[in-house]
Amino acid sequence: MQALNVQMREWLGTDYAKYQYYLNLLYSIYSFPNIVLPLVGGLLIDRLSASKMLMVFGLLVCVGQGIFAIGVSARSIWAMVLGRLIFGIGGECLGVAQAKIITDWFKARWLGFALGLNLSFARIGTALNDNISPVIAAHRSGVVGASWTGFGICGLSFASVIWLTYLDRPESRTSAGVRPDTSYKRSDRIQSKTNNIVGRQAINASCDSTMTMSSDALDEEDEIEKEDEMAQDDQMLCSEILTLQPNFWILSLCCIALYGAVVPFIHVSSDFLQKKWYTNNPTKAGTVMVSFDSIPDIVSAIGSPLCGYLVDKFGHRARYIPLSALLLIWAHVQLGLTPISPIVAMFVLGLAYSLFASALWPCIPFLVKDHQLGTAYGLVTIALNISLTVFPLVVASILEITQGSYSHVEMLFIALASVGLLLSILLNVLDHQQGGRLQLIEEPSSGPHHPEEPFEGHRRSSLSEQRLLHDPYNPREPGFEYRRQRRYSRDLLLEENPDMEDVQAMVTTRSVGEGIITVIPHRRRPI
Ligand SMILES: C[C@H](N)C(=O)N[C@@H](CCCCN)C(=O)O
């Protein structure tokens, strides 16, 4: 919208004041419903399935952009508003579903890099939109052409949603050792529970059965039944939201403060930079500002996957957050209170943007249980949208009251970054007291897996870090089912030619009917 500012106003034929009202309305209608809806989206993702919901949200994005483009073609502002509403609901919930799928697949390795790459594509999209939309609109087709180009891109995005849904199907998850999606898991569990019952009845009924069960195997079966029962409870309930740990809520507050110190600034940066540095040279301002505007997004497009990689490689993900808050304070102090050229400050701002975004989102899976992930991502997305709804309005009010004083606006951003700094220090202190879960290193596993290894994947962890892991074999611990599957599939894969005897040593087989057996992977225990 911002990118097509002038051309859109000319196309709609409205005066400046009315157009500013429409512009704000089109932005607010995107963010406002997302103060609540990502929670509903997240709960649906946890209770149904991330890829099914991804389809629904992807469709909403296409429908929303289609209605918006029709509105632009017909010069109907209310159709445009309706389009943005549907687009916003789909877009933010789509982000939640994406994050859930990425976490399911990359939780044990490369999570920071994968989420960083996801952010990188979002930034590239923003930078391309800012720079290409006006060029498209300047041609014969105008803003109508630019809006329908947007619709075409949404169509391409929906095609990749379909492709992703295919890649994320239950069989691929199972063969890759990835935690199955909720709906599949539930039907699978009902089936396995039925099999267990049938198997038990068959064993009990046939005293002359040729199959005898060792007491170990019976213990194992009892444990598996217990796990099944407990897993039935592991459906995300609304009431569980209140039981999420304080660190999760502090992280959400960090999200409000730090995004609030960056995104609303980017929205007004073009006007600010022009007024402060290029007042007497509007021609230069016109050309320079387009690229200046995009510096934080471009730096973040490159920086986010790199920072994500650093987080994976060296851990300490929560420590990057106060560091990024310090960088934000530096950038805003330099921009707001000094006459120094803004280029360096804009780079620093982009670096801080990369650093906190690629550290903050990968913290979430370390703070909630697996079955709460969608809801947790939904809640942090709500925090983000509160920030993106409230602070642009605060900025607009400050500009109105101070008659356009950007120094006062910069003071707001410095204050927000300082609040982010304090909150992130508190987060690190509390996390340290609880053993440093947020600082763990997850790195790609290369060598063989040792039975005594307490957690999935190879990881350098200090003793204090390991203390907090409790019992990774406890089905109530976050990621239990995921770890068991990973162990099982890794054990099979690590054998170059796994022969059947070895495989049999790892599983218990049950005859549950004529010609039907059920295979239960053994749970490995630390030596
Ligand atoms: C408004 C927009 N959705 C946004 O700012 N998103 C955030 C968070 C994306 C999280 C995806 N896992 C961003 O940094 O782009």
Automatic annotation (TrEMBL):
GO terms for molecular function: transmembrane transporter activity. It is found in: Lysosome membrane. InterPro entries: MFS, MFS_dom, MFS_trans_sf, MFSD1. Pfam families: MFS_1 (PF07690). Keywords: Lysosome, Membrane, Transmembrane, Transmembrane helix, Transport. The chain crosses the membrane at residues 20-41, 53-71, 109-128, 148-167, 248-268, 288-311, 318-337, 343-364, 376-399, 411-430. Residues 449-459, 467-481 have a biased composition (Basic and acidic residues). It is a multi-pass membrane protein. Residues 1-432 form the Major facilitator superfamily (MFS) profile domain. Its main location: membrane. It catalyses: L-lysyl-L-lysine(out) = L-lysyl-L-lysine(in); L-alpha-aminoacyl-L-lysine(out) = L-alpha-aminoacyl-L-lysine(in); L-histidyl-glycine(out) = L-histidyl-glycine(in); L-arginyl-L-alpha-amino acid(out) = L-arginyl-L-alpha-amino acid(in). It comes from the Eukaryota. Residues 441-481 are annotated as: Disordered. Lysosomal dipeptide uniporter that selectively exports lysine, arginine or histidine-containing dipeptides with a net positive charge from the lysosome lumen into the cytosol. Could play a role in a specific type of protein O-glycosylation indirectly regulating macrophages migration and tissue invasion. Also essential for liver homeostasis. Belongs to the major facilitator superfamily. Homodimer. Interacts with lysosomal protein GLMP (via lumenal domain); the interaction starts while both proteins are still in the endoplasmic reticulum and is required for stabilization of MFSD1 in lysosomes but has no direct effect on its targeting to lysosomes or transporter activity. This is Lysosomal dipeptide transporter MFSD1. The lineage of its organism: Eukaryota, Fungi, Fungi incertae sedis, Mucoromycota, Mortierellomycotina.
